[in-house]
Amino acid sequence: MDDGLLDLTAISRVGLLNALPLLARLFGGTLTRSSAVLNLRASRFVIERPAPGLLHTDGELHSAPARVEFVIRPASLRLIAPIALKVR
Questions:
Q1: Which residue stretches of the chain are H helix?
Q2: Which of 34, 38, 44, 66 could join 10 in a cystine, given CB atoms 3.0 to 4.6 angstroms apart?
Q3: What is the reported pLDDT for 36?
Q4: Count of the separate structural domains present in the chain
Q5: Cβ atoms of residues 1 and 71 within 8 Å
Q6: In sequence order, which residues have a C-beta less than 8 Å from that of residue 71 and are 6 or more positions away?
Q7: What is the Cα–Cα distance from 55 to 76, expressed in whole angstroms?
């Protein structure tokens, strides 16, 4: 989580015939061993495709342009959390 790298997993177009084996691999923990799956790690990714369309990021589905850039921004997430004080 704090290595400064993004993990990109790209799965080639899924049809009826290869959906079930990929699903079995997903639940079996061997999805990354499939030849239909590409896994990359980097601090920046640019995805270019022929036309705008749907994009799945971290559990969310979005409409996205044809060119999308993902970049790590170190120390950009600030958290505020309540402090539990013990009163005597």
A1: 16-28
A2: 38
A3: 87
A4: 1
A5: no
A6: 43, 44
A7: 23
In a domain, 82, yes or no: no
CB 1 within 8 A of CB 9: no
Beta strands in 12-80 (DSSP E): 37-42, 44-48, 53-57, 60-64, 67-71
Residue 78 is assigned to a structural domain of this protein: no
Q: Is the residue at 53 inside a domain? A: yes
61 Cβ contact list (under 8 Å, min separation 6) = 54, 55
32 occurs within a structural domain: yes
* Full residue range of the structural domain in which residue 47 is found: 6-71
CA distance 35 to 31: 9
Token readout for 81 is 């959390």
Which pair of structure tokens corresponds to residue 12?
Answer: 């080639």
Query: Each residue of 45-76: pLDDT tens digit?
Result: 999 999 999 988 888 998 999 999 999 888 78
